[in-house]
Amino acid sequence: MSDFLKTASGKSIPPATLVNYGLTAFAVLFVCISVISGIYTVKEYEQAVVLRFGRFNSVEGPGVHLKLPWVDRSILVDASEQSIRLPWGTGEAVTASGRRRLNAKSQDESLILTGDLYAAVVEWNVFWRISEPRDFVLSYGDIETLEQTILAVARSTMHRAVGDYSADEILTEQREAVKRLAWDEMNEQLDALNCGVTITDVQMQRVEPPNRVKPAFDAVNASIQTRDQLVNEAVRERNQLIPRAEAEKDRLIREAEGYASRRIAEADGEIAALQAKYQAYRAAPEVTRQRMYLETMEKVLSASGPKTILDSELRGTVPLLNLDGGLDDAVPATRARQR
Question: Interior CA angle at 296 toward 291 and 297, to 5°?
């Protein structure tokens, strides 16, 4: 083999030069591969957890980022809101890994025991998202394992929340209270597990009695609705009667106050008159006594019928005085009697 290689134009290329070219190309290729492997993109609904030599280094948000090739490792975490339909085993479950068709089970396996030892069919949705990517990656790193953990916590929590209320409360007015209690307890338990997940919402989808007791429950609901209707009618009647009673009360109070004021004024007038008479009596007792006697006799005699006055001191004549006929009629009668 010749010591020199020739090019297409006939010129010879030394082997050392070819080696240099090869090393240069390899270095360029190595740099390109390093740069390409060190660039990664985080979508708007994701966060990236960067591990350096297997240890946590940082959390990066959406955008284009650089990492040390073969040293750093970026793990993309879906931070969007996801949901799971419960109870596990009825219908379809929507999870982060997609929509899953579950094995159909009997309704009895979906029952939850209430506080008064009855059973109710409860279906609900749990909405969650990964709020702490670092905790998720370091504690789990596997979305399937995380989903199973959320399912276990959600079911146990809902059973405990429903068990704090009676069947009637669960099926009627306490659904919001059950939802709030389960929501808070789920977040507490997931925080204690340090899985980096936050429950964003809990929605009660279907709460009803089992099929075999549903007719009886419908009858109870009908009676409750009748009761509520009667209560509403009574409240409406009360709201109509109370203003009338208040108005009548105010009217009677005003009449009583007016009567009291009038009687007080009359009593004050009578007291003033008596005081005036008393002052007059103190000034002239005999005259006042005589005047009061005459005034009293005038009142008494003016209200009576025919009147006849007898004078016990009159002698020789009939002691009669006809006040109704007058003095002229009384004199001839007296003279006639004297004859």
Answer: 100
Q: How far apart are CA 163 and CA 157, in angstroms?
A: 10
| E strand or H helix at 326 | none
Cα dihedral sign, 239-244-245-250: positive
The residues with which 41 forms a beta bridge, in sequence order, are 64
The answer to whether residue 254 scores a pLDDT higher than 90 is: yes
Segment holding 77, helix H or strand E:
strand 72-78
- pTM equals 0.54
Q: For residues 213 and 209, what is the distance between their CA atoms, to the nearest angstrom?
A: 6
**Per residue in 147-173, pLDDT tens?**
889 999 999 999 999 988 888 788 778
Tokens coding 178? 């059950």
In this structure, which amino acid lies at residue 122? V
Partners of 197 in beta bridges: 130
Alpha carbon distance 60, 81 (integer Å): 18
pLDDT, one tens digit per residue, over 34-64 is: 666 778 888 998 999 999 888 888 899 898 8
Q: How confident is the model at residue 8 (pLDDT cuts 50, 70, 90)?
A: very low
Residue with tokens 């009677």: 252
The amino acid occupying position 229 is Q
Distance CA 53, CA 308 (A): 143
What lies within 8 Å, CB to CB, of 338 at 6+ separation is 316, 317
Distances (CA, A) of 22 to 6, 16, 17, 19, 335: 17, 10, 9, 5, 184
Cβ–Cβ < 8 Å for 157, 189: yes
